[in-house]
Amino acid sequence: MPHSDADSPDAQHQAVRQLFERIPFNAYLGIELDEVSRERVVMHLPMKHELIGNFFHGILHGGVIASLLDVVGGAMAMIGAFEKHQHLSAEERALRLSRLGTIDLRVDYLRPGRGERFSASATLLRSGNKVAVVRSELLNEHGVLIAVGTGTYLCG
Description:
Layout: H1 9-22, H2 24-29, E1 32-36, E2 41-46, E3 52-54, E4 59-60, H3 62-84, H4 90-98, E5 101-109, E6 117-127, E7 131-140, E8 145-154
Keywords: Hydrolase
Family: Belongs to the YigI thioesterase family.
EC number: 3.1.2.20
């Protein structure tokens, strides 16, 4: 089956960007998308008062850390799903991608979330026909590793 322009990496990455921007929770937290490629997805989050989890020390809330790792992981899983489902029609592929969701997320909190800007990146470990596994990391603006995550996503 011939591929359309919708199959191009640029079109896939634009679709991920558009979906990301339509999720109100991402905007509420202040997550911004920096990079979308076949190899990785990168996002960042500026620290703001509303995201503090420990007011004594002014550190990022653990739930925000988990959310950011989940969002970046889901975006990476979507890139993997695009690759796996290229043989499908655009309509069938869109239907499958609309079901994308988190099955499991493990977060290892390595250090307190101190910083002014947090960057999350994700890489694909495995992309199957129905499930993708993604590894993600969260660092502060000084490159200090705050947390790592491994997510399993339904993508088909």
